[in-house]
Amino acid sequence: MAVKIAEKIVACEVVQEDAAPAPTAAPVKAAEKPGVLPLVREEEGNVIHMQPLMKRPVELRGSTYKIKTPLSEHALYVTINDVEVNGKRRPFEIFINSKNMENFAWIVALTRVISAVFRHAGDATFLVEELRSVFDPRGGYFKPGGKYMPSLVAEIGECLERHMTNIGILKPLEISEELQAKRVVAKEGGLSGGSLCPKCSQLAVVRLDGCDTCLECGYSKCG
Fold first, then answer.
1. Which of 127, 163, 185, 215 has the smallest count of CB within 10 Å of its CB?
2. In 3D, which of 31, 46, 42 has the Cα closest to residue 122?
3. Coil, helix or strand for 90?
4. pLDDT digits over 14-54, tens only?
5. Which pTM value belongs to this model?
6. Same domain as 87, residue 158
7. Is residue 11 part of a domain?
């Protein structure tokens, strides 16, 4: 059948009668961890909406940790309050206090940003590694026991890791049978005075079987 075109053609498209509707993107889900809500609230086409900020209950349970560094004569007190989500505790807010007001501005900024991440109800465990990776250009310090801290921020990250482990969000480091055997060999051989581990910052790297091995986390240059 002939069709008369009376107007100028400015655009065109191909239409198939039996074409299937375009698939929509599948909802993105947060990692299944205790006390972690899905990161996605709803989806409209290809637009993904984040979970809204959780409202603060009148009363929260929390823990306070003391951080004492050689950088200051005054200790730092880190308080992390938790909220219950699906019967599990998860961090909701963090406060850092000290008599030393030298770092007041960036500490307040840090606590506000971390608390904002907590209140979005997503997976906040990535904060641990981000904080622990911060290095002070003036140099770090050694904690009692020989563990090296590259910065005060890194120790706050370690404090957060300890809290998340205590409430069950993070799993404690598992010691493999191979690492346990290496510790026994090192103890029987009287090995001491280990060097600094680039992975866990412990003074626990010793030479075993011609290879440098960390007796704390298992790091080895030989793989």
1. 185
2. 31
3. strand
4. 666 665 555 544 444 544 555 555 555 555 556 555 566 78
5. 0.66
6. yes
7. no
